[in-house]
Design brief:
The complex is a heterodimer. Chain A is of the alpha/beta class. Chain A contains nine helices and eight strands. Chain A has a single domain, classed as TIM Barrel (Alpha-Beta Barrel), CATH 3.20.20.140. Chain A has an eight-stranded parallel β-sheet with strand order 1-2-3-4-5-6-7-8. The longest helix of chain A is centred in the N-terminal third of the chain and has 20 residues. The model of chain A has no long low-confidence stretch (mean pLDDT about 95). Chain B is mostly helical. Among the domains of chain B are: about 35 residues; about 30 residues, no CATH class. Classes of the chains: A alpha/beta, B mainly alpha.
Chain lengths: ~270, ~90
């Protein structure tokens, strides 16, 4: 088995996790910028974080032979402070030329506020003006359906952005259809409690198809499983899906989307 | 896959989760004090399981979702609780 982990917050994980992922067949890991679990006190904290994502973490992954890529942004959980968010967005362009940067993400909404939406639009402008791929976080639980609709409307309002260069992550049964119908890629996130379980992910694959869909663990400092993608591959096998079908969903699909950025090259 | 094969694969797991839900509701009943809106939302979502349409997961998710469409003025918190209070009576 081979797979790509297109969404993993590896700064929160141990070296044991890197080793387990390699043993399971991971060929590359992609790490979006996210909320640290606490609010950073200023833009300097984000500068250091972006250095970690573009310098230290790829070196740590390389010790296990795992290519590491990243996405940059200020997470929507910290977008309520629009002044801070704008200061952080202003320092992102200096990192966009770093060799492991794939685009802008994970941007989006958290509680669907006006300030979050304003900062999402600022991020979209940043991505469009620098011709970057976009990775979008959709809100949690009761906020997901409304937030996904607001996000899709905001992206569609910017005519510079091509839908096939945007992945809308954390889709569930009530949001995946609207994402795919709009021409975006859909990310299915596998979590033990919230988001999606492996059986539900396979259900969505069987109902909605896999042309523009990827799976990810979004493993972070909370309850999450860095091996959720290969475990879902096992679930697919239990249902009789062929190795070729599984390979398309967990390796070829993320490779196809991510390769739109020429920096995404596997060893 | 056949329905029989799917039952063979998933029945015990689903049975376990069903009993977990029953035990959860029993546990709430044994608790003290009034519950907040999440219990009523949960019970309403359970009604979606009686549907004969093959979109029950979607219906349950929608039942637990914020039905409004406009962005809000300010975030009440960073987290989500998994259900949305009735717009008619936020306490129910």
């Amino acid at each position: 088995m081979r797979y790509i982990e297109p969404h993993g917050h590896m700064v929160s994980r141990t070296t044991d996790d890197y080793e387990a992922m390699i043993l399971a067949g991971c060929q590359a890991v992609c790490e979006p910028a996210f909320w640290a679990g606490f609010d950073r006190s200023g833009p300097e904290g984000f500068y250091d974080y972006f250095c970690q994502l573009t310098d230290y973490e790829p070196k740590r992954a390389a010790k296990f032979g795992l290519p590491h890529f990243t996405w940059l942004c200020i997470n929507p959980k910290e977008s309520e402070d629009t002044q801070l968010a704008k200061e952080v967005i202003a320092i992102i362009p200096q990192f966009l030329s770093r060799p492991n940067v794939l685009g802008i993400g994970e941007i989006g909404l958290n509680k669907n506020t006006r300030n979050e939406l304003h900062i999402l639009e600022q991020h979209l402008d940043l991505a469009a003006s620098h011709d970057q791929l976009i990775l979008v976080h959709t809100p949690h639980l009761e906020d997901k359906h409304k937030g996904t609709k607001l996000i899709l409307d905001a992206i569609k309002a910017d005519s510079r952005i091509q839908p096939n260069r945007v992945v809308i992550d954390h889709v569930e049964e009530h949001t995946i259809q609207m994402v795919l119908d709009s021409g975006f890629w859909a990310g299915i996130t596998l979590y033990p409690e919230s988001k999606t379980t492996p059986p539900r992910a396979v259900d969505m694959y069987e109902v909605y198809g896999a042309e523009q869909v990827w799976l990810n663990s979004a493993c972070d400092w909370g309850r999450s499983d860095p091996l959720a993608v290969p475990k879902t591959a096992v679930e697919m096998r239990r249902r009789g899906h062929s190795p070729e079908t599984i390979d398309k969903l967990i390796f070829q699909n993320p490779q196809r989307f991510l390769s739109q950025n020429p920096r995404f090259r596997l060893q | 896959m056949t329905q029989q094969a799917l039952l063979d694969l998933y029945f015990i797991d689903a049975r376990s989760k069903l009993i977990d839900i029953a035990a959860f509701l029993d546990r709430i009943d044994r608790g003290e004090g009034p519950p907040d809106f999440r219990l009523k939302s949960f019970q309403k979502a359970l009604e979606e399981l009686q549907s004969t349409q093959p979109n029950r997961a979607q219906s349950v998710l929608m039942s637990l979702s914020d039905p409004t469409v406009e962005p809000i003025a300010k975030a009440p918190s960073k987290g989500a609780v998994g259900a949305y209070p009735s717009t008619e009576n936020p306490l129910s």
